[in-house]
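anyone seen this seq b4? input:
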Amino acid sequence: MNIKRAIRIALLVYIASFVLSIVYALIAGVDMTSTTDVPMNLYIAGAVISLALSIGATWWYFKPKTEKPSVKIGLYFGLIVIAVGFILDSAMIIPYYFSNPSPESNPFVYYADPWFWLTVALVIAGCAATGHILENKK
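predicted toks r here
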């Protein structure tokens, strides 16, 4: 597995997901000041955006034909996408919270929500499934 390529693509997935989720929230009129009252439509939109971008990124990762597609490599790619997301979130969001702690901006509430973990599972499964589909495509 080309780890450097996977990390670079995962960085692009994170940035695109972050930007598209903010754009959706602005269009939908979602109050972004509170992490304790995240509306269901934002969770759903975030999951759809993350899943679509991750599936597209998995396809892109396998595109140069230097890596043979497989469920295993797709799974590893999905784990890298999630790991990069956690690292970047930790680097950006957590320091902000500790500099300005308030119950409304507590990021741990968002990460404790089952809908967040469902999205994580869907991204990993989507990447693995994409690897499987591309592996069996003749």
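The mean pLDDT is 87. Helices lie at 3-28, 40-62, 71-99, 107-112, 114-136. kinda curious what u guys think
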